[in-house]
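Hey, resending since the last one bounced:
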Amino acid sequence: MSRFGYRTRLGLIYDDILTPIFDADAQAFITAAGITDATQQSAIFNFVIGLKIDNIWAKFQALYPFVGGNATAHKYNLKNPLDINAAFRLVFTGGWIHSSTGALPNGTNAFADTFLVPSTVQSLNNNGLGAYMKLNAGGQSDPVIIGSFNSTGQASTLVVSATSVNSRLNSNLWGSVIAGTSGSYDAHKTATANTVIYKNGASLSGVYNSGGILPTVSIYIGTLNLNGTPYSIGYTANELRLAYISEGLNATEASNLYTRVQTFQTTLGRQA
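The structure tokens again:
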């Protein structure tokens, strides 16, 4: 116990009833992004602490909470909030609107480069990506939320439209005919032949395919990185309120992540 009556455990600081109140990783992001609003600060602290309690935090390579209300705050990777390509901070291109509700692409030329190349960061049979979004009208015919693509057997994608949801993780395209709505979407590969799409923490569809290789171009948000070029019919107009790139999450982890994300969004008053 510290001289101020606080306790430390696993790098977190707790009050006398063992409620975590501070986290150094969260604070690093808050400082870099210039977050001064007390509600936003609290939401970030609780979000990061919750992910650590659930043993999910270490699985993320990039995590973009789109909090702070401006392009500068929105560019930072919560996992490594440095303003360099190697830290996977975003560079926004085209027409974006940045506000307290998230980052809104115009659906015609807007995308963000993560600088994260799956083949150099991820593992073939242990990778995932996802986003929390508000579904809007507009965008192109094949609206990609997040992804990169070399070929049909070398891709990491998540596509959400008003009529369908699909994904491709290093192999065959799979998905669901269920109409897309606002909310949380995740695609995860956790074994050679185990890939699953989740919506709001629940499985939508899974296939048991293998093969493929990891993409060698960086992942874009707002459209697909098609061999180094934005996919012209992939621009989305859906507002992004969180996006991430990670190791593969199992069903329990995907459910726990959704609970943490939904609590985060509710605290910020922008739950879908």
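The first helix runs from residue 24 to 33.

Sorry for the duplicate.
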